[in-house]
UniProtKB/TrEMBL annotation:
Domain Major facilitator superfamily (MFS) profile residue range list: 8-407
Gene3D superfamilies: MFS general substrate transporter like domains (1.20.1250.20)
Residue stretches spanning the membrane: 12-29, 49-67, 79-109, 158-182, 222-243, 255-276, 288-308, 314-339, 346-369, 381-403
Protein name: MFS transporter
UniProt keyword Transmembrane helix present: yes
Length: 407
C-alpha cells in the first residue's frame, strides 16, 4: 500500500506516536502511584524505592547515548517493535512474585524501552507528516509521557486494591501489545512524503560513504538543550516519583488520592505540552519559552515546600498544577527546537543525544530526592534541592537566549 495518499497520516498514526513515547514509563509511573504499598510489600526504604527510578532512567540515558546512532540505520517498523516488546516484557517481569532484585531488572528494561521513541517518532514526523501539522503533532505525541502518567496513576492504585500492584502490572501488559499491532498497520499504510522519498537515497549514500560521524556537526544549541534537559529532568522525576508518597506520608492522603496527584499532573501536562507546542508553532523563541517554564517550575517547587510547612492541601494541588504546566512542558519545547533544525537522516541520533541528557537528569532526580527524604532533612530538604535545580535551569535558559540573540 505504498501508494496510499499522505492524508492517511491521521489519528491511527498519531495514536501510535503518542503510545510509543508513553509506553516505556508506564511501569515506573505505576510503581510510583502505589509506592507506599510497594515499599511495605518489599520491605525496602524510600532511598531503595528511589533506586528503581534511578536504574530505569540510567538505562534509558545509556541506551540513548549508545544506541541513538544505530537507530538512524534501522527502519521505523523495527524500532517501534523493539519499543513495545521491551515495555511489555518489563511489565510482565514486574508481575512475577519475586524480590526487589527482579524488579530492578524490570525497570531497567523499561528504561531501555525509552531509548528509541523520541528519535524514531521525530523521524516519522519529518518523513510522513506535512510541515503544517508537524509541530502540532510534536506536542501531542510528546504528551504521551503524561498520558502514561495519567493512565498508570489512576489504574494501578485501583487495580492494586483488587489484585495487588503485581496484578496491576500484568493487566497493563495488554496495552503495549495492542499498540504494537496498531503500529505495524499504521506504518505500512502511511507512505513517506515525496520529498522524504527523494532525499532518502541520497542520505543513505552519504552516510554509507562517510567516515565515523563527527559530533560537532550538530549545532551548539543541541548541546545547550541537552544540558537544560538534564537539569530539568532532575526536578521532574524527583517530583514525579515522590509526589504521591509525599501526599500520603505528609498530608495523610489515601493511597488512591495520592495516585490522583500524579494523575492530575499528567492531565495538566498533556494540555500544557499541546499548548506549548502551539506557542512554538507560531515561531516563539525556544530559550525564551524555557525561561518561562523554568520560572513556573521554581514556583511549583516552592509551593510543595509550602504545602509541607502549612499542611495545606490547596498548596499541594497548586504545586501539582505548576509542575504539570511547566516542568512537564519542557520536552515538547526541546523536541520542537530539534525538529526545526535537524535533518531527518540525523534526527534519531540528535534526538538521542538530547534525550540522553534528559534521562541522565531523570536518573539523578529520584536518587537525590530519595537520599533527602531518608535523611533527617526529609521532604523539606528534597523540595529545597528541587527549587535550586530550577533556579539553575532559569540561568541556563537565559544564557541560551543571550547566545541566540547575539547570533
Amino acid at each position: 500500500m505504498g501508494s496510499a495518499p499522505e492524508g492517511k497520516a491521521g489519528p491511527g498514526l498519531l495514536s501510535v506516536l503518542l503510545g510509543a513515547v508513553g509506553v516505556g514509563p508506564l511501569l515506573l509511573y505505576g510503581l510510583s502511584a502505589t509506592s507506599d504499598r510497594v515499599i511495605l510489600d518489599l520491605g525496602i526504604n524510600e532511598a531503595q524505592f528511589g533506586l528503581l527510578a534511578t536504574v530505569c532512567f540510567a538505562s534509558a540515558a545509556i541506551g540513548n547515548a549508545t544506541l541513538a546512532r544505530m537507530a538512524d540505520r534501522h527502519s521505523d517498523v523495527f524500532l517501534m517493535t523493539v519499543v513495545f516488546l521491551l515495555a511489555a516484557s518489563a511489565l510482565l517481569l514486574a508481575a512475577v512474585p519475586a524480590g526487589y532484585g527482579l524488579l530492578l531488572i524490570a525497570v531497567g528494561i523499561s528504561g531501555v524501552a525509552q531509548s528509541f521513541p523520541n528519535g524514531v517518532t521525530n523521524r516519522i514526523l519529518l518523513e510522513r507528516v506535512t510541515w503544517k501539522r508537524r509541530i502540532g503533532w510534536v506536542g501531542i505525541k510528546q504528551s504521551g509521557v503524561q498520558v502514561s502518567q495519567l493512565t498508570a496513576s489512576l489504574t494501578f492504585p485501583l487495580l492494586a486494591l483488587a489484585v495487588g500492584w503485581r496484578g496491576a502490572a500484568a493487566a497493563i501488559t495488554l496495552l503495549p501489545l495492542v499498540l504494537l499491532v496498531l503500529s505495524w498497520r499504521s506504518l505500512r499504510t502511511v507512505p513517506l512524503l515525496p520529498e522524504a522519498q527523494a532525499s532518502s537515497t541520497a542520505a543513505t549514500a552519504a552516510s554509507d560513504s562517510a567516515a565515523a560521524p563527527n559530533r560537532r556537526r550538530y549545532p551548539g544549541m543541541v548541546w545547550g538543550l541537552t544540558a537544560f534537559g538534564m537539569l530539568n529532568g532532575i526536578g521532574v522525576q524527583a517530583t514525579n516519583v515522590y509526589m504521591p508518597l509525599f501526599a500520603v506520608r505528609e498530608l495523610d492522603f489515601s493511597l488512591v488520592l495520592g495516585g490522583v496527584t500524579a494523575a492530575v499532573a499528567g492531565v495538566v501536562g498533556v494540555a500544557a505540552r499541546i499548548g506549548w507546542a502551539r506557542v512554538m508553532a507560531r515561531g516563539a523563541s525556544g530559550p525564551l519559552v524555557l525561561i518561562v517554564l523554568a520560572s513556573l517550575a521554581l514556583l511549583g517547587a516552592l509551593a510543595f515546600y509550602g504545602a509541607w510547612a502549612t499542611g495545606g492541601a490547596a498548596l499541594l494541588w497548586l504545586a501539582v498544577c505548576l509542575h504539570g504546566t511547566a516542568a512537564l512542558g519542557v520536552s515538547v519545547v526541546v523536541m520542537s527546537a530539534l525538529v526545526r533544525s535537524i535533518p531527518s537522516n540525523l534526527m534519531a541520533s540528535a534526538s538521542g543525544i538530547t534525550t540522553a541528557g534528559m534521562f541522565a537528569g531523570f536518573a539523578l532526580g529520584p536518587a537525590v530526592m530519595g537520599a533527602a527524604v531518608s535523611s533527617p532533612g526529609g521532604f523539606p530538604l528534597g523540595w529545597g534541592a528541587v527549587a535550586l535545580v530550577y533556579m539553575a535551569c532559569t540561568v541556563l535558559a537565559a544564557a541560551l537566549l543571550a547566545v541566540q540573540r547575539r547570533r
